[in-house]
Amino acid sequence: MKYIAFFFSLTFSLLVAVGLSINLASLPPLASIFDPFKGFWQNAYSEDHNPAESLFLEGLSEPVEVIFDEQLVPHIFAGSEKDLYMTQGYVTAAHRLWQMEFQVLAAEGRLSEIVGEMALPRDREMRRKGLRFGARNKLKHLQEEDPETLSMMQAYADGVNAYIRQLSIGQLPIEYKLLDYRPEPWSPYKSLIFLMNMAEILSGDQDFTYTNTRNLFGDSWMEHLFPETPEGIVPVISRESWGFEPEEVIMPEVSYPDSGFFEKVFPGKEPGYGSNNWAVAGEKTESGYPILANDPHLALNLPSLWYAIQLSTPQNTVKGASLPGALGVISGFNENIAWGITNADRDVRDWYKITFKDDSRSEYLYNGQWIKSTFQLDTIKVKGQNDFIDTVVYTHYGPVVYDKNFMLEGKPLNFALKWTAHAPSNEQRTFLALNRAGNYQEYLEAISHFAAPAQNFAFASLDGDIAMTVQGKFPLKWSGQGKYLMDGSQSAFEWQGYIPVEHHAKEVNPGKGFVSSANQHPVSPNYPYYVFSDQYEYYRNRRINQQLSEMQGITIADMMKLQLDNYDLHAAENLPYMLDNLDSIAQAGAAGKWIRILEDWDYFAEANEPAPALFQSWWRHLQQKLFGSWQDNGLPIAYPSKYTLSLLLKNEPTGIWFDDLLTTEKETARHWINKGFEDMVVEIDTYMDSNDSLTWAEYKSTHIDHLIPNLKPFGRKALVGGGKNIVNASSADWGPGWRMVVALGPEIEAFGIYPGGQSGNPGSKFYDNLIDEWESGAYISIDLRNRSDLDRVLFKTIFNPD
Q1: Which UniProt keywords apply (predicted)?
Q2: Which candidate, 403, 428, 696, 749, has a CA 20 to 30 Å from the CA of 156?
């Protein structure tokens, strides 16, 4: 049983909480944990053990049937949408309650309540970034503009709360017992906080590090090392003509603020998060009908971020992956359409330097006048200590996140955040409408409500249409706006409105027979609006496009194979050049064996191959040596993408950025290639001193941890191939958390898989039962099922009105 190893470990190491150690006083009462009637023994069960055949659910208008298949995937059959979402809330909470609440507490800045002072800096940052501010704005918008969606969200919350009310202490998820707290009632506000958290995870910027880099090295370096449109890109949407008259954007005369240098790296989006999606037209498939594929890449955790579900009313049936805490299906399909999402990686967060009149910070300079700021007192409860009171200043741009009281250590600097996610919007409506959409026009209407985080929505329909739309709320900016810290006292730095929805980049039924996205540049350079991000991807998307261009007679198996494609395009484009530039002395001796392995490599990063580990080590050390030579004065700066660096190595090998100014010699790209190789040899030789063999899977060491990282027995290791910038994307702790392939037609065929299980209970056999299949590249059927189609039923429950 999984708990035995964990509790022996607990006795000796006294762990708990969010990757940090805590003291003995913070531990829960151990006697209650080991209580045979209320403690962890009560969680050592699987959901198919003595399940309830019928339950009362207050608020239902008529009975709802829930049938659980052999993987514990619920198929909910309800007579109305309100009953449907109420039951979805109950069933999701029954399997994922602790995960739902923990993620919301983390996003709302309330982890200190349950784990103590260690979480206080993170709590303050989440609050200062305005996640609660944005959720409140969205809730007010729903109350005023869309009470229908709000009523569905309330029904979902009612279902969650009905589950919470019937929980005994013994039935509480194990994490509540370990952390010694109790669940709170759910609400639509909590669902909105959850959606804000997704915007935070998938939104990023490097305004401060870009500013440092520009101040240190000048505009020439910025143009060469960080080109906004590098050569050879393949955008999501490419057109010669866009067919609309763009909104006018005035290019002002501006000067950036004298910001000095920033000594801290302010947290941004986790690097590497991304996704793949594509849809192929019937003309390229064996069946003659479209096929859609989607595999989002996010943190790999247990419980899984995703929860598979089918939702049925007499009007329609939808199936796919939901997010515990949000209504409906997020990536999925119904009887008529399929859709999938990837992060569009647009720059929708900008930072402004605020000049206050005096230390009171009650007024700040704007266009030569002093205007009033507002204050919000945030009371943060801290377990075992007095409450912490944080004062957050708000400007018309947004909250002052970093100031003398937070991250800047008493310095008289104030940086305000303007972010599209703060504004009123209705992302939940997008997914409710997509779930019941039946054609291209209804898909467009559904996604028109989606603001943040910006997403690429792939679409396919039974009618034969395929489409891709880059959707979000995108500021109208002049060229270059938002790359660097801006002066909050000048209105010239304001956004000039938003790009009209009808001007968003999209294509339907292109002549090439497919649409695809993989977090690359959204548009071709002739798009009439300024588009920027420092997070674009340059390899997965080109590999996907190249493969789809060559394919004909495409089948479901072909789409699965492409999702699992381990071809390392970055290595294929760079390794031959790197090998050719090795000095003879580097090739001598024992290093020769590593060279021979690299020379024989076919560039597929399979799990049992040694060459991918050698190449990744070599590239990483090359970068570290080169970047370490730059005279950054110890300041956090930005570094070029591996795509840009690859072009510079081959096309400008004598560029000034390759010359180490601390030496008398003139270094070139060749010098750093050799230095990187030398360090790779040292690293791999040391690795082999304690390992029997070198394989990519062991070296990369992908692991699927519990949301509380210190709970190691509740996590799993996964021996998988692929890697960063590979279609089968994975790193040590993130990867394809949901793979889905949907073949439309008279009888829809659909398959999916994710690394986890339906249950959030580590004692359940459904907690991690899908990891082995995911690891091996297998899928499970996720076809739409009627009551009569569910021949392999685990159990079923009838929810009755009270």
Answers
A1: Hydrolase, Zymogen
A2: 749
Domain containing residue 590:
569-603+610-694
Residue 525 lies in a domain: no
Alpha carbon distance 52, 49 (integer Å): 9
Question: What is the Cβ-side half-sphere exposure of residue 468, based on CA atoms within 13 angstroms?
Answer: 31
* Residue 613, amino acid: A
Measured between alpha carbons, how far is 30 from 11 in angstroms, rounded to an integer? 9
Question: 10 Å Cβ neighbour count for 355?
Answer: 16
Contacts of 11 (CB under 8 A, 6+ apart): 30
Residue 430 inside a domain? The answer is: no
- Cβ contacts of residue 276 below 8 Å, gap of 6+? 293, 294, 295, 297, 342, 516, 517, 518, 540, 544, 563, 727, 729, 736
Give which of 633, 529, 616 is closest to 574, Cα–Cα.
616
Q: Is 728 helix (H, G, I), strand (E, B) or coil?
A: coil
Tokens of 735: 């990867």
- Per the CB < 8 A criterion, the answer to whether 389 and 371 are in contact is no
Residue type, 731: S
**Total-model pTM:** 0.95
Quick check: helix, strand or coil at residue 705? strand
Q: 206: closest CA among 564, 482, 12? A: 482
679 falls within a domain: yes
Q: Is the CB of residue 197 less than 8 Å from the CB of residue 176?
A: no
C-alpha to C-alpha distance for 428 and 479, rounded to whole angstroms:
32
Contacts of 709 (CB under 8 A, 6+ apart): 18, 19
Give Dmax over CA atoms of the chain in angstroms: 84
Helix, strand, or coil (residue 789): helix
Q: What is the mean pLDDT of each run of 10 residues along the chain (802 residues)?
A: 46 39 46 54 76 95 97 98 98 98 97 96 97 98 98 98 95 92 97 96 92 93 94 94 94 84 73 87 98 97 97 98 98 98 96 97 98 97 97 98 93 95 98 98 98 97 98 97 96 97 98 98 96 93 98 98 98 98 82 95 98 98 97 91 97 96 94 97 96 97 92 92 96 96 97 97 95 97 90 90 88
- Residues with Cβ within 8 Å of 16's Cβ and at least 6 positions away in sequence, in order, are 22, 26, 27, 28, 115, 178, 179, 708, 710
Q: Are 159 and 190 in contact (CB under 8 A)?
A: no
Q: How far is 662 from 628, CA to CA, in rounded Å?
A: 11
Q: Backbone phi, then psi, for 604, in 5-degree steps?
A: -90, 120
What is the identity of the amino acid at 149?
T
DSSP string, 204-222: ---HHHHHHHHHHH-HHHH
Residue 510 inside a domain? The answer is no
Q: Say which residue the tokens 């991000």 belong to.
A: 533
CA distance between the termini of the chain: 38
| Nearest in space to 207 (alpha carbons), one of 590, 487, 444, 8 | 487
DSSP 3-state assignment of 152? Answer: helix
- Token pair listed for 62: 């008529």
In 10 A of CB 791, how many CB atoms?
A: 8
Provide the β-strand partners of residue 419: 349
Q: Which residues contact 590 (CB under 8 A, 6 or more apart)?
A: 681, 685
As for how many domains the chain has, the answer is 1
For residues 601-613, one letter each, b for 16 or more C-beta atoms within 10 angstroms of the residue's C-beta and e for the rest, the string is: bebbbbbebbbbb
